[in-house]
Amino acid sequence: MSDDTQDSFRNVNKKPGLQIWTINKMQMVPVQAQCFGNFFEGDCYIVMCKKGTRQSADIHYWIGKHSSQDEQGSAAIYVTQLDEYLGGTPVQHREVQGNESPRFRSYFKNGLIYKKGGVASGFQHVDTNVYNILRLLHVKGRKCVTATEVEVSWNSFNKGDIFLLDMGKAIVQWNGPQSNRREKLKAVMLAQDIRDRERGGRAKIGVVEGNNERDSPELMKVMTKVLGPKPGQLREATSDEESDLVQKNNVRLYHVFQNSGNLVVQEVATQPLTQDLLLSSDCYIVDKNGSSVMVWKVGYIKAKNYPTSTRVEVMTEGGESAMFKHLFKSWKDKDQTHGLGTTYSVGKIAKVDQVKFDVMELHAHPQLAAQKRMVDDASGDVKVWRIEHVELVEVNPATYGQFYGGDCYLVLYTYQRAGQQRYILYMWQGRHSTANEITACAYQAVNIDNQFNGAPVQVRVVMGKEPLHFLAIFKGKLIIFEGGTGRPSVVNPDPGARLFQVRGTSELNTKATEVIARASSLNTNDVFLLKTDHMCFLWYGKGCSGDEREMGKAISEVLSKQDKRVVMEGQEPAEFWVALGGKAPYASDKREEPPHSPRLFECSNQTGRFRMTEVDDFAQIDLDEEDVMMLDTWEEIFLWIGNMANQNETKEALSSSQEYLKTHPASRDPDTPIIFVKQGHEPPNFTGWFNAWDPHKWSVMDPSQREVGGPTGSESDEYK
């Protein structure tokens, strides 16, 4: 690699996080964090995501539908060079606008926004708190949302979709009469994301129901002023262009080699594929019947007459993607170890690496700027307030990091950058806080923002979804209590024994989350703290690492001044089980990393026809109570039935899961157990695949619905 190329990658952060660059005059230009999720149709982008310190990165190059051939070529070249710079381990993905992979979409939970124009049109960056904007966004999708800029006119509307009229200081969401609840909620979340990231939290949001516009007279006046009189009839709903996720049963392996100076592509096998077909010295292509092409380290797509939107993944030996491994009947990673040690996944059993614990890592402050909105190493000043009777009350610094689910908090973080004071204002919303408290939190945030002349960046944090920087500023002492309040004047009811799940390996990424104090909440991969009236037990699962145990000890000193007793899994004393109400099954699978990662699919017929859509990087929040969800853990298939799912979806999901097994490229056992799980009655072998499972999640209203009066409401209180 040339010195010039090395120089262009010197600012590439090799630590976990998301980084994005756009191609400007054939050069890689970093994209600001507040612009993540915005893609100009005339540009190409490079997106790199690294989930863990020991996991290889995924590098995507995204092609806008109006981008030039030169830009596309530059993006492809930079991706190859970036792959080489990172040691050849990343997996490369080719993404085309409108046909992005589930993994790519998973990085942008609130949706993708396609914007007109590009760098060549004069765009440099989006500046927060700028209101000179007028655009109409056409929002589509229930799980993976996309928003495309369209003509600001009633001619762009239809009856089945949702549209956001963005006027800078105000955003009006118009819900088509035929749109459903899930789509409305996702659109609300997108509107909130635009407000929080692009407007610094200072834009009003209003919601109009297209089949009940008379209930929103003020908002309709605003829309009419901008769009003109509404025509008598709007266009009918358009079907989603996203194709069904069907199992491609025509998977073929091709060998790519040179013969007398000519490139030869020769078919060598069809399903089921086995790992021994791959020789380390050669190049191979796995073709999933044209739906995607995986290159294992080539005019191939053109030669096969596949559409230009075909997704392409490029990978090297040892850096194979989970989807690539899924196409082979069996797979074993090189140097894969046996036994238990550090786990590197969210809520799942991951590959076990025997890593020597270095206690100095607890005191390290590595540079984390630009990493998941990490602006610095979290060594700045912190001030915390709690909302009490709609007013701000300063929190005792001795209790910083302790957050109660019945409260709302404001956290002001101050740091230095380029010799100037900079601010981040976090608005933390407890799961059990009231609508009035959430409203007061937003109101008080504006007051604090005004005190600093609009300088703070405002970040809305929902309980359980704390960003990495938020964890880091509390130095490994973040404790989230499920309920109650931190108000000194209020005596919380005695909950009896309390159980906390500890996740994290350093002061920069650790938090303790209260879970229901039952044995079924335990997980063999984690550290748990059990606090009783007279003792604090530190329970070490067999799969936890030395780093995790050290952080468990550190956080136990904050949680309890009582005597501490270390309990190793399998050696629990009787009083431990008594405090948890007796023994019960829990997530206790002690296997090394399964050869195939679990996959989650949404099964729904709400668009009028049954479809299965994969959810990448899944969490409990992705379980939609209106649908059936299929969780494939390879050895079992779980069908999770939401309380609002209809009978037809349940029937279709069963037959589709059976067909999924029969047609799987890796020739799966058709007799693989299919397990029905009803919402609210999930067994531990299901919940164990999810991080910090909350058994009470569906007994409370979604905070995002409360904030704007619900996605099916009319005039938003926030807008008025």
TrEMBL record:
This is Gelsolin-like domain-containing protein. Its main location: cytoplasm. GO terms for cellular component: actin cytoskeleton; cytoplasm. The keyword Nucleotide-binding does not apply. Gene3D superfamilies: Severin. Residues 26-105, 147-213, 390-471, 511-577, 610-686 form the Gelsolin-like domain. The lineage of its organism: Eukaryota, Metazoa, Chordata, Craniata, Vertebrata. Belongs to the villin/gelsolin family.
